[in-house]
């Protein structure tokens, strides 16, 4: 009997030791209050010296000449052979950090602590250098796992390839490739400094507005960091949503055009042009591709205002090759309802009225899409709508011959747009007389 008891004791000891090994997985944990949790990132070109803010001037005066504050220079290599490196592009990097205690309401809110975030900026010619230099300004290391949005300033988007600009962030194992990117009309730091209207954090306000792509055709398809990486790898051109500061808030509409060959921004699409682009692209599978919104036009002969609420939009890009000549046909189908009608005499219950309204909307949609295609083909000579993908799938041999100079080839290709609008409902209002 004693031997049996001893055996049980040894088994219990062995199990206890095993459990201590299993529960030791948090030996390297870090408390959230000890980290600088970054929620948003801004990338800019630094302002000229006479325009820089007081904090940057104070840093320059206190530190003397440093790499982060110096003007771009030509650097030779270590062997002093006279070979010079390419000119550096100076960077202003901004992190929007969360203040967890304020965000959760556990801190005593006084003075400057009323905000649940703070922005910290630094200059240099290397992202790694700037982030490491943040250690001289903040006692907490940056933590990128919760970054939601990234804002790129207009000036640096035109100056520096996104392939080089985002290389550090794509290498970082903490930063998710689902981070959404926008390009600022102006400076990224101004966007991150703008007090949000509805959210606690500016970076989250940006994310929430982008989610309204299902409510407005003016918002370009939100662009994740991973999507940019894929396009840079294949040297395909693409769009990124545009963001700008208004008097009391921020606005996301329009789009920045990124040339695949250079990775740099070449221009903008306006609100109506993005509307046409979204109709050509149609709705995809992800929540960021579920385009919907409004089409506004007038109804002859009285030319009163009438508005169509888009519920679903599907599109098909069909390439054709005849006698070596490439052309495209775009078929767009919309389902929706009449959301507003300023006519005082029309009867929504009559089929003839609905047919006439559908024709008016189809005409307007063709106008929107044609304006968009003219801007892309004639002015910017760039394909950001996926025509190249349709050609590569249906005619891979033709694509192989054209892919090296595709944007230029795209500018010459005829595109026919066909639109079918279905008015599914018109509310409870019928005869108006």
Describe the fold and architecture.
Belongs to the GerABKC lipoprotein family. Keywords: Germination, Lipoprotein, Membrane, Palmitate, Signal. This protein has about 425 residues and is of the alpha/beta class. It has helices at about 1-20, 55-65, 100-105, 125-135, 155-160, 160-165, 165-170, 190-195, 200-210, 225-235, 270-280, 350-380, 385-395, 395-400, 405-410; strands spanning about 35-45, 90-100, 115-125, 140-145, 150-155, 180-185, 225, 240-245, 250-260, 265-270, 295-300, 305-320, 325-340, 415-425. The strands form 2 sheets. Strands 1, 2, 3, 4, 5, 6, 7, 8, 9 and 10 form a 10-stranded mixed beta sheet that branches. The chain has a 4-stranded mixed beta sheet with strand order 11-12-13-14, sandwiched between helices. The protein starts with a helix and ends in an 8-residue tail after the last strand.
Question: How are the SSEs ordered, and which strands pair?
Answer:
Blueprint: H1 2-22, E1 36-44, H2 54-63, E2 91-98, H3 100-103, E3 117-124, H4 127-133, E4 142-143, E5 149-153, H5 154-159, H6 162-165, H7 167-171, E6 180-184, H8 188-193, H9 202-210, E7 223-224, H10 225-234, E8 238-245, E9 250-258, E10 265-269, H11 271-281, E11 293-299, E12 304-322, E13 325-341, H12 351-380, H13 387-394, H14 396-402, H15 406-410, E14 415-425
Parallel strand pairs: 1-4, 1-5, 5-6, 6-8, 13-14
Antiparallel strand pairs: 1-2, 2-3, 6-7, 8-9, 9-10, 11-12, 12-13
């Amino acid at each position: 009997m004693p031997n049996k008891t001893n055996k049980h004791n040894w088994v219990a000891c062995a199990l206890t030791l095993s459990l201590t090994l299993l529960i030791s997985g948090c030996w390297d944990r870090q408390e959230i209050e000890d980290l600088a949790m970054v929620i948003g990132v801004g990338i800019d070109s630094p302002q000229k010296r006479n325009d820089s803010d007081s904090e940057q001037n104070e840093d320059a005066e206190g530190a003397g000449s440093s790499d982060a504050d110096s003007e771009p220079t030509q650097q030779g290599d270590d062997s002093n052979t006279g070979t010079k490196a390419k000119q550096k592009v100076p960077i202003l990097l901004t992190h929007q950090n969360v203040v967890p205690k304020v965000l959760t309401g556990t801190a005593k809110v006084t003075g400057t602590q009323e905000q649940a975030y703070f922005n910290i900026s630094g200059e240099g010619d290397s992202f790694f250098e700037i982030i490491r230099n943040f250690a001289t300004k903040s006692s907490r290391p940056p933590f990128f796992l919760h970054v939601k949005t990234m804002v790129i300033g207009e000036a640096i988007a035109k100056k520096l390839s996104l392939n080089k600009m985002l290389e550090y962030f794509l290498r970082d194992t903490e930063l998710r490739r689902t981070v959404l990117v926008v390009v600022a009309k102006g400076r990224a730091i101004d966007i991150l400094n703008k007090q949000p209207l509805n959210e606690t954090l500016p970076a989250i306000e940006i994310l929430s507005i982008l989610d309204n792509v299902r409510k407005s055709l003016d918002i370009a398809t939100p662009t994740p960091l991973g999507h940019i990486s894929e396009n840079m790898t294949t040297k395909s051109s693409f769009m990124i949503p545009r963001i700008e500061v208004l008097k009391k808030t921020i606005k996301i509409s329009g789009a920045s055009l990124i040339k695949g060959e250079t990775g740099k921004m070449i221009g903008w699409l306006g609100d109506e042009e993005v509307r046409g682009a979204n109709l050509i692209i149609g709705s995809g599978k992800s929540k960021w591709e579920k385009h919907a919104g409004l089409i506004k036009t007038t109804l002859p002969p009285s030319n009163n205002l009438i508005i169509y609420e888009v519920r679903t939009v599907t599109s098909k890009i069909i390439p054709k090759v005849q006698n070596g000549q490439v052309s495209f046909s775009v078929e767009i189908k919309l389902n929706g309802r009449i959301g507003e009608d300023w006519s005082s005499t029309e009867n929504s219950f009559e089929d003839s009225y609905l047919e006439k309204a559908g024709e008016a909307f189809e005409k307007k949609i063709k106008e929107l899409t044609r304006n968009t295609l003219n801007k892309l083909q004639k002015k910017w000579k760039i394909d950001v709508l996926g025509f190249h993908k349709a050609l590569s799938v249906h005619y891979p041999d033709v694509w192989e011959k054209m892919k090296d100079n595709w944007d230029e080839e795209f500018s010459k290709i005829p595109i026919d747009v066909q639109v079918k609008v279905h008015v599914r409902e018109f509310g409870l209002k019928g005869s108006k007389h």
